[in-house]
Structure formats: C-alpha cells, structure tokens
C-alpha cells in the first residue's frame, strides 16, 4: 500500500490540474491537513462514542436510524471511521461492511483484486491525490446471491479548518447480490477552505444490483471534487442517486461503465446552488456492450447568485448494438443573479443504438404560481410547492428519513430566496 | 447602427491566435491554418443562367452576374469583393470584420488576411428584393492551390431579401478551403438565407458563417451541408438588438470516410430575442458527424427564448454521430430547452412502406426524405428544394450501403 501511495503521489505531482469546468485555482494544496485522527480507538458500541461526537451525530439523525431499522451504520468523522456497526444477522450471511482502512488489513485479497482498478491513480489529478493520501471510507462486500433488503448507511463529516478529506470507498457486489447503500456528507462553516476529494469504486457483477445514494450538504467553503465510477457486468444494475447542496465548488460526475451485455445504469440527481455556490455535476454512461441501457435524470435549481451546471457524457462504443439511453436535464433559475449551463456530450460510435435527450431551463412557471395563488396560497408557499414538485421524482426515490431531511434542507435553502 | 469592434491584425498575430473550438472534432491534422491561396479563374462553369439574379465567382473571377435595372436604381450592389474594394472602399471597410472580429480565431483571421475572391452585397434601407438572389462560389480544384474566399452582406433597415448561396468545387485536385461569410442585418431587416454547400471529397475546409442582427431583425437560415470532404463549420448568430429573431435550420449528410463538425450557435444578447436551432443529420458508411448546438443567453437578455433540437439518423453500424446540445444561461427570465436524439432508421415506417409494395431501397429513401422534411420545409423556393433532394439522392447512391 505504501508503494501504491508513493506511485500515486508521483503521478499527482506530474499531472496538470484540469482546466475545464469551474475555477479551482483558489485551492492551496499545501495548506490542507491530509490526516486528522479524532479519537484513539474505534468504537463498536454506540455508548462508547465520546459525547461531543455523539451530539453531532445525534443532530444529524444517524444513530436513530441505526437503532430503528438500518442494516448498519458507519460514520466518518474527519479522517477516520469512529463508529461502525453491523447488525448480527447480516454478518452471518458473509456481508463485509467496514471502513476501508480496516479492510486493507483484514481482507487484503479482496482489496488487491479491486482497489484502484476502476479508478486508476492516473485517471485525474484529484484521483491521484486521493490514491496517495486516502484514509477512511467504506468497504462493502456482498457475497453471491445475498440480498441486503434495508439500506446500509455512512456519514462523512469535515470538522476542522483547512481539512482535506480523502475517503476511499469500494463496493463489491458479487453475482446476483443486491445492496442499497446510503451516505450523507456535511461540514460546519470555518474560514479556511476544506477539500473533499473522494474516490468511489463500485463493481456490480452478473445479475447484481447496487443503489448508491448520496446526500451532500457541505458548508460554503468546501471544495468537493470527487471521482465516482461503477462497472456493471452482464445484466447487472447500477443506480446512482445523488443530491447536492452547498459546497463552494462541486465537481462530480458519477459514471457507469456498462461492460456486460444487458447491463443497466441510472443516475438521478438534484443540485441546489445558492449564494457563492457552484455545482458542476452530471453523469457519464459508457455503453460498452450489447443491449445495455441507461437513464440520466438531472434536476437543478440555481438561486441567489448560485450556479448549477449539468455536464455529462453518454457514449455508445462500437460493441454497443441495441443499446438505449435516455437523458433529461431540467433547471429552474430563480432570480437574475443565478446562472445555469447544460453541457451534455452524446458520442455515438454504433449505428444500432437509440438515444433521447431533453433539457429545459426556465424560471418558476408563472401559470402554476398564479394558479396556486388564486387558491389562496401565499406566493412564498406556492413557490415552495412548485419547487418541491419539481424535485419530487428525486425525493420519492430516497429512504424515508432522507426524504424528510431533504425536504427540510430544500426549505432551508430556499428561505428568503423566493416569494 | 449597432456598435461593433474592429481592428486590424497582422499575419504573425493571426498565427498566434487559438484555433476555433470544435468540441469532439479533432481537425488539427488537416492543417487548415496553412493556406496557399493560388486560385485561378475557371473559364466555363455554369451554375447560374441568364435569368438568374445574382453573381457567380469562378475561382477568383466573376462569371455570370445579373441584377435587374430597378434594383440597380435602388442602390443595390452585388459584385465581386475585389471590385467592391476598388469601387466602394468605404462601404467594404465599414462592414468588413463588423460581425466576426479580426482576432476571433486563427482560421477566420487568416481568411481576412489571405482571401482573394468573394462577393459583396449591399442592400440599402427599405429595399425589398422579390426575386431569389443567388450567390455562388465555385472553387477551382482543376489544379492545386487553396481557395480562400469571403462573402460580405449588408442588409439595410427594413430591407428584405431571399438569398440562395452555394459553395461548389470544379475539378478533383486536393485543396483546402477557407470560407468566411459575414451577414449584417440592420434594424427591422428580414432575410431568408438558404445555403447549399457541396465541396468535393478532395477538399478539406473551414467555413464560418456568422450574422449579427440589430433590433427586430429577422434571419431564417436553411443550410444544406453536402460537402464530401472533411469540414469544420461555424454557424453563429448574434441577436444583438432587442426583439431580433433567428431560426437556424441545418441539415447534413455524410458518407464514406468523411468527418464533419458543425457548431451552430445562437447568442441572445438583446431583450425578447428568439433563437431556435433545428438540426438533422444522416450518417452513412464510416463517416462521422458532430453537431455542437449552443444556445447562449447573455445576462440582461430578459424574455429571451433559446430552443434547439438535433436529430441524427445512423444508417450504418460503423458510423459515428454526436449530438451535443449545450445551453449557457446567465439570465433567469428566459425560456430555454433542447432535445436531441440519435438512432437508426424507424423500422415501423420502413415496413409500412414495404407492406404497401415499395421495395426496400425506395422505402429507405422516402424515410430519409421524411427525416429531412422539417428542414426542407424551411426552404422557400421549389427549385432549391429540388436541388437539395437531388444532392441527397446522389449521396445515397454513392454510399456503400
């Protein structure tokens, strides 16, 4: 692993910073703390977790969910996972759910086979930095044919000024297995900028299913620059569900490489950008095999001077006969200070495919607004209802408490910006 | 008149400018920035005949040239750009580079410095031209030497006209082509601009066709791209004045091993401007076609509308087609949308036609013609429509189906 880190660091130093997309020149990589150790040991039982950490999580609702019905819950506070637990019955089926650091020591063979294979250190500069400096993150292995019916959760939180969080997540879904993974991210406000440069690798083998749900609510001084990529093999399904709030700049384009015949990939995302926020996100669907299908649905809202960009790629390779892709990106620009760009690339190298692409940018529909107002609803409430309706296809896909949290976040975000 | 920036540029400065950006098209190896403009006149070409209103430039020399007396009396000028520079230097000076700034990109700047043939059109305020105004550039490929041409069109306030512009090749020599077309529409002008570009398979080239529209001007483009070689093309419309409108209709057909990159961009700068892009592409054999559509609403363009639709029909498994519909929006009080699709021939339509007794070949042609229909319908003259259908048929016949 040390050797791997050193090689990745050498690659990082050689690679140029990407020039496309949002401006990243303000990041001072020398100012960032690359590792923070919050507590001395890991805790298996919630009662052992220090009270101040517990309070933070308490406010975020993590332990409650765990106690009630979640399959397992893991939380990354700064660079290490401090609390982590799996329900006993799942351990029996052979599911591994741990932090990636532990996995390196306990499951070296699995790690060696998949770690860094989907996102290579040379993929981009930030992936190289992550490969060199990574700590924490989630490791999940679901054995053949095992179905995890309730979601597995993680929570990541940046709590120190100028911190860099470089978590590394690896999910292996073996043949015919089924997993639903949910992660939340947040950070309180500090004056120094923080960097979140995660790498997520997912492999879904034949007939497997994986849903990966992320809700990020960073404070407005976090650069969130992530590389998320999944391989879907024969007849496998990979679903990304992605909600982005806050951050200073987010660049994130979860990808599905549809490498096996009949594989399916979907991306469902919302992005809400307020003052000082630039969310540059999207998805990539790379069709490399026959009869693969993909769907991208992206909803963005820009308000109070925020900027949301959709940047995506759909590619059909030479081998992708019979493949199908559907892309939909809708944006609402709430006021004059905000902006939104839609930058989709559709690259087709095979004549036997079908692609549909639609996008719409508009302000809150006056017709809808007036209709609701004639029914006695205030302008503010009406706007809120329209925006909630706009993001509904997204919220209805979330686990219940995340949907509630999202609704709360949406309302909080939009306070004072509408009506 | 709308303000514009203008400046001179030297050849060394031009060579340091960036190449124009054609996303997803690699064309640096075509060396379009190294031109040897040594075109000669062609003695016998005849795209236009006696009763056609307009001008034909054969290589570097004007061939057929005809303007009815009443238009001459009204002050309309249609002449070779060389003649215009001699006879009306101030007019040419005033509008040259008014749409495409001299330092916009390397290829346009080089054209400005090296062009040796072209057309100048000046239509004074309030003049309405009823007949079809034809502008034909024939590139001489009977010997080697690159074609560097420029068309400059000024349409005065509230003037109206219908233009058919053609780009053709004579001869089979391998040449490079650089064509820059500037169209300036003053307030209230209304122009229907159809273009048929059909350069030969041995010509690789750059085409920049840009227009600037003042208040309430209206420009409808209908472009048929039947070039057989490798081309990169810009269709750029700047809606600078308020209430200006454009419909940019583009159809393209590519076959064999050619590569064609088309950027169609509409910038909404003025309030209540409307820009609609409609593109249809058909790809045969190993060819590649890239549509980059850009709807750009600039801050302050309240009430602007930017829409685009791009559809690509792939008739071969080896084909490559990209439809990249971009929207860049800096204003909230707008409507914008895009739709794109890429796919193979509609089997249901094909079987329906065949079940009515048509052979597969004819049925395929009808489906293709139907696919091009929305653009063909935008072309005002029957003659032009027929000429385009001929071009489609010719290309289908030549393709290795």
Automatic annotation (TrEMBL), chain B:
<dbReference type="InterPro" id="IPR037284">
    <property type="entry name" value="SUF_FeS_clus_asmbl_SufBD_sf"/>
</dbReference>
<dbReference type="Pfam" id="PF01458">
    <property type="entry name" value="SUFBD_core"/>
</dbReference>
<feature type="domain" description="SUF system FeS cluster assembly SufBD N-terminal">
    <location>
        <begin position="67"/>
        <end position="135"/>
    </location>
</feature>
<dbReference type="InterPro" id="IPR011542">
    <property type="entry name" value="SUF_FeS_clus_asmbl_SufD"/>
</dbReference>
<feature type="domain" description="SUF system FeS cluster assembly SufBD core">
    <location>
        <begin position="145"/>
        <end position="371"/>
    </location>
</feature>
<dbReference type="InterPro" id="IPR045595">
    <property type="entry name" value="SufBD_N"/>
</dbReference>
<dbReference type="InterPro" id="IPR000825">
    <property type="entry name" value="SUF_FeS_clus_asmbl_SufBD_core"/>
</dbReference>
<dbReference type="Pfam" id="PF19295">
    <property type="entry name" value="SufBD_N"/>
</dbReference>
<dbReference type="GO" id="GO:0016226">
    <property type="term" value="P:iron-sulfur cluster assembly"/>
</dbReference>
<dbReference type="InterPro" id="IPR055346">
    <property type="entry name" value="Fe-S_cluster_assembly_SufBD"/>
</dbReference>
<comment type="similarity">
    <text>Belongs to the iron-sulfur cluster assembly SufBD family.</text>
</comment>
<protein>
    <recommendedName>
        <fullName>Fe-S cluster assembly protein SufD</fullName>
    </recommendedName>
</protein>
């Amino acid at each position: 692993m040390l050797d791997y880190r050193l090689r990745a660091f050498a690659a990082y130093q050689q690679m140029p910073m990407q020039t496309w997309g949002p401006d990243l020149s303000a990041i001072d990589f020398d100012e960032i703390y690359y590792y923070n150790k919050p507590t001395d040991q890991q805790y298996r039982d919630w009662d052992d977790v220090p009270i101040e950490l517990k309070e933070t999580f308490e406010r975020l609702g993590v332990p409650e969910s765990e106690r009630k019905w979640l399959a397992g819950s893991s939380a990354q506070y700064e660079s290490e996972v401090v609390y982590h637990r799996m329900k006993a019955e799942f351990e029996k089926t052979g599911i591994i759910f741990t932090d990636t650091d532990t996995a390196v020591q306990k499951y070296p063979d699995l790690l060696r086979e998949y770690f860094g294979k989907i996102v290579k250190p040379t993929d981009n500069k930030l992936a190289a930095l992550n490969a060199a400096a990574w700590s924490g993150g989630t490791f999940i292995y679901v054995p053949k044919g095992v179905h995890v019916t309730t979601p597995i959760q993680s929570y990541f939180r940046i709590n120190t000024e100028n911190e860099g969080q470089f978590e590394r997540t690896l999910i292996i879904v073996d043949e015919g297995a089924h997993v639903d993974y949910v992660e939340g991210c947040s950070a309180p406000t500090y004056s120094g900028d923080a960097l979140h440069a995660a790498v997520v690798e997912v492999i879904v083998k034949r007939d497997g299913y994986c849903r990966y749900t992320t809700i990020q609510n960073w404070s407005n001084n976090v650069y969130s620059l992530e590389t998320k990529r999944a391989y879907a093999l024969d007849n496998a399904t990979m679903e990304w569900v992605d909600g982005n709030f806050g951050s200073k700049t987010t660049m994130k384009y979860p990808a599905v490489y549809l490498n096996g015949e009949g594989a399916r990939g979907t991306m469902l995302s919302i992005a809400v950008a307020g003052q000082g926020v630039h969310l540059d996100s999207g998805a990539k669907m790379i069709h490399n095999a026959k009869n693969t299908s993909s769907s991208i649905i992206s909803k963005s809202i820009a308000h109070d001077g925020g900027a949301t960009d959709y940047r995506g790629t759909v590619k059909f390779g030479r081998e992708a006969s019979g493949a199908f892709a559907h892309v939909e990106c809708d944006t609402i620009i709430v006021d004059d200070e905000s902006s939104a760009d839609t930058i989709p690339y559709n690259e087709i190298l095979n004549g036997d495919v079908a692609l549909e692409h639609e996008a719409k940018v508009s302000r809150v529909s006056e017709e809808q607004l007036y209709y609701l107002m004639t029914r006695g609803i205030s302008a503010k409430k009406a706007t809120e209802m329209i925006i909630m309706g706009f993001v509904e296809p997204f919220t209805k896909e979330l686990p219940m408490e995340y949907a509630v949290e999202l609704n709360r976040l949406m309302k909080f975000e939009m306070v004072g910006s509408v009506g | 008149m709308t303000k514009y920036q203008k400046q001179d540029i030297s050849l060394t400065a031009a060579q340091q400018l960036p190449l124009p950006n054609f996303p997803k098209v690699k064309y640096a190896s075509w060396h379009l920035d190294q031109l040897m403009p040594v075109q000669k006149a062609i003695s016998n070409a005849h795209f236009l005949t006696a009763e056609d209103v307009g001008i034909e430039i054969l290589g570097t020399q004007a061939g057929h040239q005809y303007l009815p007396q009443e238009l001459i009396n009204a002050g309309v000028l249609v002449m070779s750009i060389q003649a215009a520079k001699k006879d009306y230097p101030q007019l040419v000076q005033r509008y040259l580079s008014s749409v495409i700034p001299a330092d916009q990109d390397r290829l346009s700047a080089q054209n400005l410095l090296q062009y040796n043939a072209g057309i100048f059109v000046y239509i004074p305020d309030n003049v309405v031209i009823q007949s079809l105004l034809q502008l034909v550039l024939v590139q001489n490929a009977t010997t080697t030497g690159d074609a560097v041409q420029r068309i400059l069109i000024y349409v005065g306030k509230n003037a109206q006209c219908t233009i058919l512009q053609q780009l053709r090749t004579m001869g089979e020599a391998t040449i490079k082509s650089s064509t820059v077309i500037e169209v300036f529409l003053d307030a209230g002008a209304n122009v229907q601009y159809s273009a048929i570009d059909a350069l030969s398979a041995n010509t690789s080239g750059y085409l920049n066709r840009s227009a600037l529209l003042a208040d309430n001007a209206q420009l409808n483009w209908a472009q048929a791209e039947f070039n057989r070689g490798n081309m990169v093309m810009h269709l750029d419309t700047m809606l600078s004045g308020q209430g200006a409108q454009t419909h940019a209709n583009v159809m393209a057909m590519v076959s064999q091993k050619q590569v064609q990159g088309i950027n169609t961009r509409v910038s909404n700068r003025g309030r209540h401007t409307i820009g609609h892009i409609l593109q249809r592409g058909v790809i045969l054999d190993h060819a590649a076609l890239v549509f980059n559509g850009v709807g750009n609403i600039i801050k302050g363009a309240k009430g602007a509308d930017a829409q685009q639709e791009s559809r690509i029909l792939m008739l071969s498994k080896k084909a490559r087609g990209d439809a990249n519909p971009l929207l860049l929006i800096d204003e909230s009080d707008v409507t914008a949308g895009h739709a794109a699709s890429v796919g193979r021939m509609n089997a249901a339509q094909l079987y329906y036609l065949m079940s009515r007794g048509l052979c597969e070949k004819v049925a395929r042609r009808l489906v293709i013609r139907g696919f091009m229909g929305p653009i063909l319908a935008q072309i005002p003259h029957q003659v032009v429509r027929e000429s385009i259908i001929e071009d489609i048929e010719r290309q289908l016949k030549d393709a290795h189906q």
